Structure formats: C-alpha cells, structure tokens
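for the writeup, i need someone to sanity check this before i put it in the appendix. the sequnce is what the collaborator sent (i think, or maybe the updated version? ugh). structure was predicted straight from it, no edits. if anything looks off just tell me and ill rerun, i have time this weekend
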Amino acid sequence: AEDRIQRTTQGSGSAVDNRQSFVGVKKNGIGQFAFGRQYTPVFNTGAATSPGQYNNVVGDMVYAGNSSVYGSSATTSSGNNNGIGFTNRASNALTAQSDTFAGFQVGGMYALNNTNQTETAAPGSTAAAAAGGNTNWGGWGLGADYTWNKLFVTAAYQSFKTVYTNAVLGVAENMNIGGLSPAQATAILATTAPVWQPTNRTDKQVLVGATYDFGILKAYAQYVNRNVVENDTAGVGTNGASATVINGTVFKRSAQQIGVRSYVTPTIEVWGSSGTGSFQGASTGGAVTVGTGVV
C-alpha cells in the first residue's frame, strides 16, 4: 500500500509498479477479477465524478493538492497534498467488478500485506531501523453505481488497518503523518530517532458522487470523508524516553464540491468547481505529535 497516514510506505517502487501493476481476467456479461497493485474503490468512484478529472490543479477539494508533498511546501497536516482525502492505491489487492445489469454495477476489493521481522536491537538504534517490527496491514472496500439515462450516481466505502506489534524507528518518508514537513523530518532525524509505538491504526473512508449530462454541459457533485483512529501502547519514546501516546482520532477530513464541464470545440473542454472542507490533525501549538509522542 502507499499511504503515510496509515504508516505504510509512499515509495513509488520500481518503474514497473509505481502506479498499477496487476493481472486479471474479464468475461463480457459477467465481470472481471484482478490481483496486484491497483486503484481503490474510493479512488475509482472519485475519478468517475471529478469535474477536474484528477488533473492536480489547485482548488480540487476532494482530490486535494497540486503536487506531491515531497515536491512542495504542502504537508499532511495542512490537508493539502495528493492522497490526503483517501487512499489511492493498494498493493496485494484482489478486486472484483461486475458487468452492468439494469443500470447497476458493483465491485469490491480485499488487500493484505504482512511483514514479519524480528526486532533485534534497542529502539532508536541504526540496527533497529533495519530490523523493523512485526507489521500487518490490510483493508477492504466496496463500491456501487447506477446509471439512469443521463444521471450517474456512485458511492464507495473502504476500511484499512495498520498494526505494529513492535516499536519501529521513524524514517523521513513516512514521518509526515503527524504534520512534519520533509525539512522538519530531516532535521529531527539528524539529531534523534523517533520511534512508533506498538499501535493499532484504523482508517475509514467514504466517497459519494454524481453527474448529470445536460448536453451543453455536464454537472458534477462529490462528498468525501476520512476518519483515522489510533490506539497506541505506552512505552519507549524518542531515544528510549517515555512517550506521550495518542489515543482516539488523529486525523479527520471531509470535503464537498460541485462543478461543471463543457466542450468549447470538439477537442477543447473547460471546467470549473467550487467546494468547502474541514481538516483535523494531531498537531498542537508548536509541537508535532508523530504517533508515539511529541518530538
């Protein structure tokens, strides 16, 4: 998977698997099955109802942000970077999608990634970074849509869980979950070694959308909600110090937007959208909480 908020890697992998990489079978009149690294049900639902068609232009409240957090000043804590609204892709995912029957189409996803590594060094040491900890990540999702004449309505729900059974040394690419910018993460790692406590983090996401084609233009509407809850285990914190742990909601974001899209010529389209949203993170004042404690 790739989602900093879930404490999974955001690395793009190789040139082969940096987007989607899967195999599957399809039978017209029945549906399709696929396995591998794939887009999630919520991502696909949003893509079908996005007035900007996921073009990364500033102002999209559902597919937030105009660039990766690694290439701009946007951070997870600002609620303004790609993927902040929902999980885009999942590795080791089994998906199923039905064909369309009487206007209805349904689909689902199940994903599981278990990494079992024994913690062999004290938390905070270089060896601990290599050893890691026992990590279990998994998730599932459902989606459905209905088409009636020029009306299209769709909805998707997905739920993920990340479990660390050992304390794990933080690294720069995934420390952004608590609001750290890349520069802050680099500065902290240069002088200390934040450690994630054994933890159980759940992430529930929903997206509802609709479109209506008036002919001269097409209207769009979307709503997205994401709620992340964490239950940490108290214990070792930064470099062996006692930790202030997070329990309860550590991330919550919702947004809604409407938009229109229309052809000016057969090859040129224009679009516009407007929306509002809210964001709640784990940062408080000048201190940033990174899941284990304030660093």
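The chain has a mean pLDDT of 73. The first strand starts at residue 21 and ends at 27.
thx in advance!!
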